[in-house]
Write a structure and sequence with these properties.
Rossmann fold; 12 helices
Length: about 280
Amino acid sequence: MKDFNNKVAVVTGAASGIGRALAEACLARGMKTVLADINEKALIETKASFNTKNVLTVVTDVAKADEIKVLADQAQSEFGQINLLFNNAGVDTLDDLTKPVWELPTQDWELILNVNLWGVINGLKTFVPIMLEQSNEAHIVNTASVAGLMSNPMMGAYMVSKHGVVTLSETLHQQLSAKNTKISVSVLCPGMVNTSIFKNTMAREAKTPNSESDPNSDFVKHFEEALNQAMSAQTVADTVFDAIEENRFYIFTHSNSKEAIQNRFKNIAQEAAPTVPEWLKKLE
């Protein structure tokens, strides 16, 4: 897809971070844009900041299939078609950052998998049939992470969810290609990006989660400092649109990601145990 003017984009998780930057990039390219997010207040503020009539906001919990259906219905009713879908909404919890997988509360597992993985599944089940029926050019971008292509001793549930998004996207691409459709697929695998993912999770729950992890621990502080100094969401959005224009499937934002991924694949090929990525050692 190279011509974006007057086409319609749907962005989940659009009220902050990468989602907001993607929405802004859509509007800058002349697209009519549907902003979906569970945080109604942030959604309203985001729409006001864009100051354009080409925006529709729909409060949406991507973990709920019926709310995704409402999102699609309102997008079609307002703009008539859907050309670009960003399955972008994502969460993580402080406990997932600091606790081993066997100690992570079930409610954290359910939240992370329901939003990060089932949110994408729900999006595909709803929007792909619409795109197929339209019979015109369309593109789907599923937000995964480099965490979906490697493993490390933190963020276990998050990594599980993102590994799922990567293989789901690969399968989707193969199936749509086999049917000779006009729908292209990309999977976004960013490295560390300056977002408020943990604060957004708290907002999603409408209260501070019942976390046993110390938000003032040295490790958490180092991780947050790294996030604050990380790549901007705007840079990620520009990279995504370059990839869409070039019809690239895998979208990487950080040059050092491939080295870490290759090291993991090397361990697999050699039947060796997983090793801790170098970038994570620097946080310790």
